[in-house]
Design a protein that fits this description.
By secondary structure, the protein is mostly helical. It is built from 16 helices and three strands. A three-stranded antiparallel β-sheet has the order 2-1-3. The protein is elongated and about 95 Å long. 31% of the residues are buried.
Amino acid sequence: MPVFTYRGINRSGASVTGERQSETKDQAKAALRREQITVSKISEKGKEFNIPTFGTGVTSKELAVFTRQFSVMIDAGLPLVQCLEILGGQQENKTFQKILTSVRSSVEGGATLSASMKAHEKVFDPLYYNMVEAGETGGILDTILQRLSTYIEKNVKLKRAVRSAMIYPVAVLSIAAGVIVLLLWKVVPIFVTLFNGLDAVLPLPTRIVIGMSTFIGSYYGLVLLVFVVAAGFAIKFWYGTPQGRFALDTVVLKLPVIGMVMRKIAVARFTRTLGTLISSGVPILEGLDITARTSGNAVVERAISQTRKAVEAGRSLVDPLKETDVFPGMVTQMIGVGEQTGAMDAMLQKIADFYEDEVDAAVKDLLTAIEPIMIVVLGVVVGGVVISMYLPLFSLIGKLAGH
């Protein structure tokens, strides 16, 4: 009889691993469900190797739509298992469908919804299942799901703003680099052959462009390309380390224009996340811990973690936030007012709304300013290469006209 190794979460929320002897994988999973173990991974012993998958396979938009529909169904009084069954059955994303089916099976087996979701942490992050747990405990799951769907939708909007701010300049610079390399590699050598036949004295700009063309077309150009690719991979690997991530995120926040936008995005995400957690009944210390892990920026994460330690030591929230020098003065002042009046969650949501509007305006202004600058830079560089190739011809035509 085959032996299956498994990993999952028991009813109390603790991670468990072990082996189970059974005829099939489904029978093994059913037996574990009866023992109130939510299975996150199970495979036959000796056949554990799987092709690795990249990403969760579930987009933020799909999660937001699911959460919104889920909240409406719960509010209408439908049983939890029936909601999951309906939503899983109509889900077009097969990966998400399997996850929802697994969550439904786990809930049917007696596990809580939050524990069942915790077994799929790549899709339902700590913020999600902690808020669901708070909703289950307080009997306000429908309200919590509504807040979650609003939060995810706002987060999707922020991510779209980041992409809008970065994609356009990166795309234009990439096209410009491709055009220049193509000119230097294929077009300039044709002019070089012509100039060699004329035996003319070449101006300095022309000699510089020819030198660049020779470099690009030679062995050294290939070495440069390999170096650039290797440097890109090295930076990506370094960013995967805590030190590299902190250093690069610090640089990003200090950039002249992009840094201001990224700082506003970080503030909006921090206030929206913490406000949503506090309004849902999650304790402040746990809320700060979750907010730090989902901040998306190492500098902000460290600042929130330092603030959490200070609050844990008995200090107020506003003073440690000021000491980090990461959050603007207006933000800390409004948080201070919210702390004194006991309306912290409402104040955080107002700050988030304000900064999300600020991000929208900043991204529009950034794109409006970048577009003409990029066009001018592209025109000057490409035009400069072309004109430098025609300078010797202009000089030669002038001499011939003089004769």
